[in-house]
Design a protein that fits this description.
heterodimer, A: 335 residues, mainly alpha, ABC transporter involved in vitamin B12 uptake, BtuC, two-stranded antiparallel sheet, two-stranded antiparallel ribbon, 73% helix, B: 241 residues, alpha/beta, Rossmann fold, 2 domains, six-stranded mixed β-sheet, 11 helices, 10 strands, globular
Chain lengths: 335, 241
């Protein structure tokens, strides 16, 4: 064979810049906020909110990346996940009010389990009935998934009524840890830990398993994955179910955070979720994670420092990020 | 002629409202390298994509190893033993070289002896084993795309313009690699615009024009007949030699 000089490709660089923005932003906010204890409270609250947004958004970014489906109905799974928690909270009301940590943890896990199973099953049906007929047709996807969201909201009204439903946190998760002069709500710490666990699990699955390898490849070039002999459609249905289940999990956490259930809670966070996945880079789990944290930190800091800017802070963040990186913080290579 | 492995009979393909293939008849004998030549837009890539099921034949029949695969799904066609290297190479840029190859090994593990053979064909892949495929040069990506197609034994390789845009030295490396694949008994259907490369590699040749096969025969005959070359390939030969 002809000898050919091997040209060394450039060493791949880890892109630390988006990752560094989160701590840099927090440090910049410290002197602006003035009080260290207030800054700690704001930052932990933002991290908790960011983790819940990540839980709700991660499935959507994978669904878009893998099959190019714009699912405006993703909020359905958030609302329904939250309402499914009622199936647990009603019969286990005594355990919610109990002082036993174990009983409280079991209640929370049961809520999460029921919500994830229910929204996962709903995701399977939603993909078959609503999404499958409109593959490759973005406009129709937007219209029909938005329609699905509206229908599901009305179904929630039919089943659970139109009035907001208050829910209580299990006793153990109420109150706050006091660290120095800063008060950190217990539930927010739980949300941060749960978000980190889910992110770590997703990272491990995506990077250490064959199914993760297939998902990452499918996000880049689904057609080539099929040409290698894999049924990408089955993979997509699986990702859709898991993404819906994660949205259900996010819905439960979000509901306990607000301590109120409303049918429109999914639609309310839908816009936020889309901002997050666009800022992070469509299809990128790492980008979704960083995007969630950024959105939450910006919202909390501006809400405290310049309340009038809070409403548009996320849009401003998206504009700045897209001007800097039009494909988002961590763009996924596409064919 | 050896046993026919792949047979296309009167294959038509529509893409949307466009009628691209107008009744393609093509035979690919087992153990041979068949060149598919033609001008830009003649329908060569569409023919490969239709064989892979990426675009469905609207009429006609495609049989592989005696089995009708006309309406088969792409994963089934791949599992039947056809490997495909598209014109854009289809490399997964965010995955490492290793991950690209592991993905193609459907049993989940790469046979070490087979991997050594592949590294013998394309030594650069061993050097860049742990690098993201996206940082490789064009030639290295092409090597990876072909390596991915042969990392497990396949019955037939469909390769779309492997020398396109490559430096002459890399093209010679590719030609050597295809010669080794031929020597190993692989059956290959190779779309190529580079007639010099085609002459060096082809056993048989089919020439396409306007979505049809307008000539089929041996490469030796075509290589010796300058008039036939000029008539069938025309300006594309001047451009791509």
């Amino acid at each position: 064979m002809t000898a050919v000089a091997v040209t060394l490709p450039p060493k791949p660089k880890v892109d630390w810049v988006p990752l560094a923005i989160v701590p840099v932003l927090a440090l910049i906010a410290l002197p602006l906020v003035g009080s260290f204890s207030t800054w700690v409270t704001l930052t932990v609250a933002a991290l908790a909110m960011g983790m819940m947004i990540f839980l709700m958004a991660s499935g959507l970014t994978l669904v878009f990346g893998l099959m190019d489906v714009i699912n405006f109905g993703h909020g359905v799974f958030i609302s329904i996940g939250a309402y499914l928690a009622l199936l647990v909270l009603g019969p286990m009301a005594a355990w919610v009010a109990s002082d036993s940590v174990i009983e409280n943890v079991i209640v929370l896990l049961a809520c999460i389990g029921v919500a994830m199973a229910g929204t996962g099953a709903l995701g399977w049906a939603f993909e078959r009935v609503v999404v499958r007929p409109v593959y490759g047709q973005h406009l129709k996807q937007i219209l029909i998934t938005m329609g699905g969201l509206i229908v599901a909201e009305q179904m929630i009204h039919v089943v659970w009524g139109a009035s907001p439903i208050p829910i209580s946190l299990p006793t153990t998760f109420r109150g706050a840890f006091v660290v120095g002069e800063a008060a950190v709500e217990r539930y927010r710490v739980i949300a941060v830990v749960l978000g980190l666990l889910v992110f770590a699990a997703m990272y491990l699955v995506l990077n250490r398993t064959r199914i993760g390898l297939l998902i990452r490849a499918g996000v880049e070039n689904a057609e080539m994955v099929e040409a290698l002999g894999y049924r990408i459609r089955r993979l997509f249905v699986g990702v859709f179910i898991v993404g819906s289940g994660l949205a259900g999990l996010g819905g439960v956490m979000w509901a306990f955070y607000r301590q109120t259930l409303t049918a429109g809670m999914g639609m309310e966070v839908n816009v936020l979720i889309f901002i997050v996945i666009i800022v992070g880079g469509l299809g990128s789990i790492g980008g979704c994670f960083i995007g969630s944290l950024l959105v939450a930190l910006i919202a909390n800091y501006t809400g405290f420092l310049v309340p009038k800017l809070a409403l548009v802070s996320n849009i401003l963040l998206m504009v700045i990020v897209l001007l800097w990186r039009p494909q988002g913080l961590y763009p996924v290579a596409k064919r | 002629m050896s046993e026919v492995l792949l047979r296309l009979e009167g294959v038509h393909t529509h893409i949307g409202r466009y009628h691209i293939l107008h009744g393609v008849d093509l035979l690919v004998p087992r153990g041979e390298l068949t060149m598919l030549l033609g001008r830009n837009g003649a329908g060569k890539s569409t023919t490969l994509r239709t064989i892979m099921g990426l675009w469905k034949a609207s009429e006609g029949r495609i049989s592989f190893g005696g089995q009708d695969i006309t309406a088969a799904a792409t994963p089934d066609i791949a599992q039947a033993g056809i490997a495909y290297v598209p014109e854009n190479m289809g490399i997964f840029a965010d995955l490492t070289v290793r991950e690209n190859l592991i993905l193609a090994a459907r049993r989940g593990e790469i046979d070490p002896a087979r991997l050594r053979w592949v590294f013998g064909l394309f030594p650069a892949l061993e050097t860049f084993w742990s690098l993201a495929a996206g940082v490789l040069s064009g030639g290295q990506k092409q090597m990876l795309a072909i390596a991915r197609a042969i990392i497990e034994p396949r019955e037939l390789l469909l390769v779309d313009e492997p020398t396109k845009g490559l430096a002459p030295a890399i093209i010679m490396n590719m030609i050597s690699a295809f010669r080794e694949l031929k020597a190993a008994g692989e059956t290959i259907l190779l779309v190529e615009q580079n007639f010099t490369a085609a002459k060096m590699l082809g056993d048989g040749v089919a020439i396409m024009d306007d979505g049809r096969i307008v000539h089929a025969g041996t490469m030796a005959e075509l290589a010796e007949d300058a008039g036939l070359q000029q008539r069938l390939l025309g300006p594309s030969m001047d451009t791509h030699q």
